[in-house]
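Give me structure tokens for this 136-residue protein.
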Amino acid sequence: MRAITFIEVLVVMIILSLIAGIIGTQLLSVPAKAKVDVTKIQISSIEGALDRYFLENSTFPTSEQGLEALIRLPEVGVIPKNWQGPYLKANSAPTDGWKNPFIYRSDGRDYTIISLGADGVEGGTELDADISSKNL
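Here you go.
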């Protein structure tokens, strides 16, 4: 019987370390990507609620009224006469996959919903990139 040399053991350990490193980085990127997907789904859900709001009120909530107008009758700006909400099932304005509030901009005729991504700062690339309702 031939004994296993130190070099052979070392080579096997290096190969196993490389495999573990590749698998580990893949597994770690899955939750991060899932947060991007959750954020996109959340934006789509908010868009559906905004469409229902618009159908009943002939306007979108303004920036001042915010996404809270989908949960409670707005108390600022022009108060909608046909509000029949809540349009979202929530107690407070929805958050993105990183639990940060969405940025909502609207003049009442059009809107943009923005998540600032993983870093919570405007701009960025990859997971830190902003996610907007205008580029889903």
